[in-house]
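Two component transcriptional regulator, LytTR family
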Amino acid sequence: MKIFIAEQAGVTRDRVQSILRSSDQHQIVGTADTGTKTVSMVRHIKPDVLILDDTLAETGGLQVAQQVSKLPLPPAVILLTGYLEHLVNNALLPTEACLLKPVKQHQLISALDKVCRINQGHIRGLMTRKQSAPRDYVCARHGQDFKRIPIDQVIYFMARDKYVTVRYDEGEVLINDSIRELEAEFKRDFIRVHRNALISRSRFSTLSRRGDNGHWAILAPQGDTIQVSRRYLSKAYAFLRLGVSQRHLV
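Tokens:
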């Protein structure tokens, strides 16, 4: 996740950078200490998240938040404040989260997790309206941190209870997206084989018949298996019969 830090106080700015650098999931793409510079750089860099001091010089933090919210793809904003009333009135502010200074590590991580999910929903909304390209990652909670999983590393999505399990090259994580949303967004890269499962088109190598247990999709390279329901079986066979260049059509 690309993060821009706009903070007037050097001590706070250094503290935030130290927290972010403790995880390889965060990329600091710029810093600024004035409102004017922040708006200009955010417009050019297009970060995912703006961590924003509410007492910036020249243009205050709240004014900056209002200005960047009008950008074509605005960042999620985490406001840093020394005023308790801003915390109380957080729902009325043009921001996704508000933290009281001095910044605590667990609170900043929790806020980043929150805005990651908010931004995913916002991006999906923009894609629906503008028919833009899908994301190249999904965002998942990983312990007290969060992790971006590149789509080309995902083997399958499996709906379980209230969450979706993402099986990828390095393991498994849970996400809040629904199977229906994932299918709509990533239909060129994944094919549905069960009411609760999407599998990667590029990892789908063959089908295996297991007697009375039905048909199972075999996925490369680890050999993961996902049951294929009767409803989607003909579609799965049709997919395998096509050449690689045509498989996105099924």
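The first helix runs from residue 10 to 21.
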